[in-house]
Design goal:
The structure is a homodimer of 319-residue chains.
Chain A (H helix, E strand, L loop, with lengths): L9 E4 L10 E6 L4 E7 L2 E8 L11 H9 L8 E6 L14 E2 L11 E3 L6 E5 L3 E3 L4 E3 L2 H11 L5 E5 L4 E7 L2 E8 L1 H11 L13 H13 L4 H15 L3 H19 L1 H4 L4 E5 L1 H12 L6 E4 H19 L2
Parallel strand pairs in A: 2-5, 5-8, 6-9, 11-14, 14-15
Antiparallel strand pairs in A: 1-4, 2-3, 3-4, 7-8, 9-10, 11-12, 12-13
Helix pairs in contact in A: 2-9, 3-6, 4-6, 5-6, 6-8
Chain lengths: 319, 319
């Protein structure tokens, strides 16, 4: 199997020189990307990322991929590295078995230690969460939820994490009580990029009125989704529907049916969105149309806060 | 742009020699494939197909692609060729503008003549149908409907044409009154082949109990579809859901939400399915679970019957 060389490493450092020595390193290792932060007493010292996602790596390629990114930050002593995300999947570096809800998003003693060749590394992976009924799983989002709870310690309510696989999680007394995943982001990517609808959306663009109409349509008649989709193509052919309007209405339709199905999660609840600014803004707008004001938290801030929580939990368990 | 050579031509003839001379040639020219039948007084004399679909051809490549397939059947006199499908789209060989419903599926004087270099060819394209509200289009299915009506002259009811873009058409007094398209087949292909769900379906297989459960779930709670999809992945990870069960339940879910949205079409109606045997069997099974017995018509028989109808209409209009 041909494997890419992961040439695309991007770095930003807060000093002019590469003489940074990290107290510990925070790692968000997803299917497509690897992101690492050198952490010091004052917080982030430097950041680096590459496209060496879990999905592209064989088991013995994880350590070299990580070293390539973080070796510059290592010193003579052992550096703790806390990672979350798909790196802990069965096909990842080392499986970190799911923890079943209800439970705290990150808990003492449940981080999985990975054996490394390089003695300077002490790598720990935070496990994901599972739910038996209805069956569901998450990997990475539990760390963001832990981070959000560290930033808002007394939060009781619902987190919505929009993305490829959007998650809704009910959190109470510091525990994830239940959660549900929606394939909204992946459906949008497949439909706008690879289905017959792509012909009418190739020019990109955005149209807020069309987005709102899509949300409203998706919310009101979610059972019609499979018919509504092709309408976007037909309107492009018959009525000159613009690329911007078609894209925005598709997004609105898919978020609308997500909100319709997730209603038991958000109705009458305190909702906090965790994700990229643009995506959270769309969800906040869609929720506002249902009369709900959602707060927004930055995804990276939550990830870093959650990895710090995981590290604290680890230190406490193994003094 | 690199274009394939369309090497994969398959032929079947009813004679041992290639000395067939066609009275006329029936052509079904879709996005992905080109199929042609040499027609004589007794019906089909020979069949040939290639992968020279509309989607792979520039405008000046249509005639060579057609000649490559049918030249063996031409004689010294002009041979009429009647084509249907995406060949008549704006991006096709020559646009055959949509005819707006309500109207007969194929009508006199509306076939579009294509100018060819080769004087032995007299090519006509059957136009598709359009509907303004809700916006919808079809190309190719109108010919199958015309063919089905020729096979069942007094049919009043609903045709369901399952496929990449499934169509439901209400037909009365020989006219298509209204129709609606569902992206069911394309959604199944994208989700089972390219989404995260593919991991749990890679081994193929089929499970009728899981299909029935999917139909029932999709029909009963269509608004939950976006959440139900990821459940297939989670059940694979947590409960060992088999590839066969996951594939069949996905198919059932998508057909279930189609049936839920298409209910105004089939409820209390006479329904006739037009399509491949396997796909029609799935739809018939799903409809039977709703207490409805649907008849089934072979798609190719309908296409040929419809192209013959179109040819008859053309001859009558231009004696």
């Amino acid at each position: 199997m041909l494997r890419p060389k992961f040439g695309a490493i991007h770095m930003t450092t807060s000093s002019q020189h590469s003489d940074i020595s990290a107290d510990w390193i925070a790692v968000d290792w997803g299917t497509s990307n690897l992101r690492a932060w050198a952490m010091g007493a004052e917080g982030v010292l430097a950041f680096a990322e590459s496209d060496a996602g879990m999905g592209k790596l064989a088991r013995d390629q994880f350590e070299p991929a990580l070293l390539r990114l973080v070796e510059q930050w290592l010193s003579d002593v052992v550096t703790p590295i806390v990672a979350c995300g798909m790196v802990g999947a069965r096909q990842g570096w080392q499986e970190a078995p799911y923890r079943a809800v209800p439970c705290a998003p990150v808990a003492s003693g449940d981080l999985v230690r990975v054996q490394t060749q390089d003695p300077r590394l002490q790598v720990m992976i935070a496990p994901g969460l599972s739910q038996l009924s209805p069956p569901d799983v998450m990997r990475g989002e539990e760390t963001q939820i832990a981070g959000a709870l560290a930033l808002m310690p007394n939060f009781d309510g619902v987190f919505c994490l929009p993305g490829t696989h959007s998650k809704w999680a009910h959190v109470s007394a510091g525990e994830v009580v239940s959660f549900q995943t929606f394939m909204t982001g992946e459906l949008f990517a497949l439909l706008s990029g690879q289905s017959v609808l792509r012909h009418g959306m190739a020019e990109g663009g955005w149209d807020e009125v069309a987005f709102d109409a899509g949300v409203s349509e998706g919310m009101a008649r979610p059972e019609k989704i499979s018919a509504r989709l092709f309408t976007l193509r037909a309107e492009g052919l018959l009525a000159g529907l613009s690329s911007a309007s078609a894209r925005a209405r598709l997004s609105g339709l898919l978020i609308g049916i997500e909100l319709a199905a997730a209603k038991p999660y958000w109705l009458g609840q305190q909702v906090s969105l965790i994700g990229s600014e643009a995506l959270c803004a769309n969800y906040a707008r869609a929720l506002a149309a249902q009369g709900l004001t959602a707060t927004q938290l930055d995804a990276t801030a939550c990830t870093l806060s959650g990895l710090a929580t995981a590290r604290g939990v680890w230190k406490k368990a193994r003094p």
